[in-house]
Write a structure and sequence with these properties.
Length: 714
């Protein structure tokens, strides 16, 4: 009876004067495809009782649904279409219902149709599972078949032959005929909660997901999916030392997939639909003449200071991002902007990273010291069945968003090299343990690092302070050197602001928050900022709706400026002693960085073309960040000594005499040991260190092993 009602739905449901599912079945049959997708909302419109019964007992009803589909197809094409479960039509369901969070799945959901969303973090190989087993008696030759319907179930062979004409065939006479059995494809996936949905301080939950037949091999690790499935239980056949294995009532949950839907282009906000009221609000916001300043001021409003203004503007550009392009020959140009903050401790670098993680459509925060190459990219793991499977790392999970890496300088060099491909080509190639694949990593990188000596040293060049390979530095579009300058007026203003933050922490140091009401939020005072939710939604809307491009005028302007920048860098390099003294290389990647920054500025205003003012602002940002870092020169000895008193100069001269006596020409010594001996003889520690810097600039000393050892040159 139910099967006939399902057949009526497939045969008679009409959409736009077309018998939708009847035509779909015939088209897929001609193409050799056996999977069709059915909208649950359309099933409910045709017969509400059918939808209710399908939601209550999905396993049994789906079998009837697929049998009805086979019957409809056989009648439609007038051929003997096989209707067994392994080779017949597969029904995939699609629903618009709200997803249930993974951490709220409970015993009440077992056996019900549910929808969950998250990230696929690992996938196994596709296996062949027997759907029907053909057996034969080894003595009398009688054949029989056994159904193996469950996902993880097995079939037990009969212990006696049931042939009535034979008296006794002995015990366990049956053998399996593998070539005559029918098989289905099966794959297990691991679904994990999306990082932005995990409550603070909690570990992300994950669950086992099983896909079969036409749904296998369509979800790679890192994909963000919404899964419609049946929550089921299976008994774990594990080792005896597992305490749960001895308890008969304990079963492990898994989700049997009956429909899978992908979020577009890597993250959920791409598929988000904004209401007309929200769109009108965003369009009105984009027409503000000061939208660039407003977005920059809304980023980490509790962090103030003159040095933060350009950093906030660069982070606003990074949140918007440029435009990804695919050339006719298949080459892809990234549109994501990478930013590096390098500087002294206590300059709020980590706070910027934490804030951007909250605002970005997809944000993943990690620390460089606790991250390995496999944890950032992808790892190949062996499961309990001794099989290898792939698990995505932080760069894969941040696909479509921003990956924030703190303590970037503390990473091992081999781990830092592993993300080269992810930062430029935006893919991660894996060739391990027989698994060769390419994962998408369409993510921006926001990194924070300290100089090689902990604090930025004025007496050293930028190349000596940064101490990173040019291959990784050239992949950053903006590199900011953040300095903690000791100035009384600057220190006083920062101290007042910090005290204000602590006294008025409830309203973010007294800054005026933009109201939730659209008119109020748009007509606020000039120093207003956007609240966090509005900022996040506006960023998501701009990334979705706007894709500006250069015109001939702005392209010519960028080209000429790039050539002049290269000429300036060449002259500076010649004066400083060649390419080896250049801290940050200026290459064609930096020209593409200028294009991306200019596109992001136009994207803030939802414009289709990049204006000349966007190019000028992109050039200004580039010059105050990367160019300033590339051209930072060490202070000369004369400049350093000019501001010292007579007593300090005398102390430094005495320290120089001690160093010359302590370390003969051509010998090495431990830095700490030399300093301790000098202090024991009455020399000031600052005088010894200052004398070492001055003598190093005169090429009398050189430092080895990152400043741990000294060598006297002359």
């Amino acid at each position: 009876m139910m099967q006939k009602r399902y057949a009526d739905f497939l045969r008679n449901f009409r959409a736009d004067s077309v018998f939708k599912y009847r035509e779909l079945l015939i088209q897929h049959h001609r193409r050799g495809e056996l999977t069709i997708t059915v909208e649950l909302s359309e099933l409910g419109l045709f017969d509400g009782a059918l939808l209710t019964s399908l939601q209550k007992s999905p396993e049994d009803q789906l079998d009837l649904f697929e049998a009805a589909a086979n019957d409809v197809l056989r009648r439609a094409v007038l051929s003997n279409t096989p209707c067994n479960r392994s080779t017949g039509v597969q029904i995939a369901l699609k629903s618009t219902q709200l997803a249930t969070p993974l951490r709220l799945l409970a015993a009440d959901h077992v056996g019900k149709l549910i929808k969950v969303s998250g990230i696929i973090v690992s996938s196994s190989k596709v296996k062949s599972k027997a759907a029907r087993i053909e057996i034969q008696c080894s003595r009398c030759g009688k054949r029989d078949s056994l159904d193996c319907r469950g996902t993880f179930s097995t079939a037990s062979l009969p212990i006696k032959c049931n042939n009535v004409s034979q008296t006794d065939c002995g015990s366990t006479p049956y053998v399996i005929s593998p070539d005559d059995c029918s098989y289905t494809d099966q794959q297990t996936l691991k679904l994990q909660e999306a990082p932005e949905t995990v409550p603070a301080g909690e570990m992300p939950r994950s669950t086992l997901v099983v896909v079969e037949r036409g749904l296998v091999d369509i979800a790679a690790p890192g994909a963000r999916v919404s899964i419609l499935g049946v929550l089921s239980l299976f008994e774990r056949a594990d080792k005896p030392q597992n305490p749960d294995a001895a308890v008969a009532a304990i079963r492990l949950p898994y989700i049997k997939v009956v429909g899978i839907d992908f979020n577009v282009d890597g993250h959920g906000n791409k598929s988000r639909h904004f209401s007309p009221a929200e769109e009108d609000r965003f369009v009105e916001l984009s027409r503000r003449s000061d939208i660039y300043r407003l977005l920059a001021a809304s980023i980490a409003p509790s962090i103030q200071g003159e040095y933060t203004l350009d950093i906030k503007k660069a982070l606003a550009c990074q949140l918007m991002g440029g435009c990804k392009k695919t050339l006719p020959d298949g080459v892809k140009l990234r549109g994501d902007i990478n930013v590096l903050l390098l500087g002294d401790p206590s300059t709020a670098k980590s706070q910027f990273l934490k804030f951007v993680e909250k605002v970005a459509p997809v944000g993943v925060y990690t620390s460089g010291k606790g991250s390995s190459a496999a944890g950032l990219t992808a790892s190949v793991i062996r499961d309990k069945n001794r099989e290898f499977f792939l698990e995505g790392g932080a760069m894969v999970l941040a696909d479509g968003g921003i990956c924030c890496i703190d303590e970037f300088d503390k990473m091992r060099e081999t781990d830092r090299v592993a993300i080269h491909e992810a930062m430029e080509q935006q893919t991660i190639s894996i060739a391990k343990a027989g698994i060769t694949t390419v994962l998408n990593s369409r993510t921006s990188v926001l990194a924070a690092a300290n100089p090689v000596y902990g604090r930025y040293d004025d007496l050293r060049s930028a190349a000596e302070n940064i101490d990173m390979m040019s291959t990784i530095l050239s992949r950053f579009d903006c590199i900011f050197i953040v300095r903690d300058i000791r100035d009384e007026g600057r220190d006083l203003s920062i101290a007042k602001h910090v005290m204000g933050v602590h006294m008025k922490a409830s309203n973010t140091a007294g800054v005026v928050q933009a109201s939730a009401d659209p008119q109020t939020s748009l007509n606020n005072a000039a120093d207003s900022i956007l609240e966090l939710k509005l900022l996040r939604d506006y960023v998501a809307y701009c990334r979705t709706k706007s894709s500006p491009r250069l015109n001939s005028e702005t392209a010519a302007l960028l080209s000429s400026e790039y050539v002049s920048i290269r000429e300036v860098v060449k002259r500076q390099g010649d004066c400083a002693g060649g390419q080896r003294h250049q801290a940050v290389p200026v290459t064609v990647r930096q020209l593409e960085a200028l294009v991306r920054i200019a596109e992001s500025l136009a994207k803030m205003r939802l414009e289709a073309t990049v204006q000349s003012r966007d190019v000028h602002e992109a050039l200004r940002l580039f010059k105050v960040s990367t160019m300033a870092a590339a051209s930072a020169a060490p202070q000369t000895v004369g400049v350093e000594m000019r501001f010292l008193g007579d007593e300090e100069r005398l102390q430094i001269q005495n320290a120089e005499q001690f160093l010359k006596q302590r370390v003969p020409v051509g010998t090495d010594a431990k830095m700490l040991l030399v300093l301790d001996e000098g202090v024991a003889l009455g020399h000031a520690d600052f005088a010894l260190r200052r004398a070492l810097k001055i003598m190093s600039n005169r090429m009398e000393f050189t430092e080895l092993d990152k400043g741990r050892r000294l060598r006297r040159l002359r």
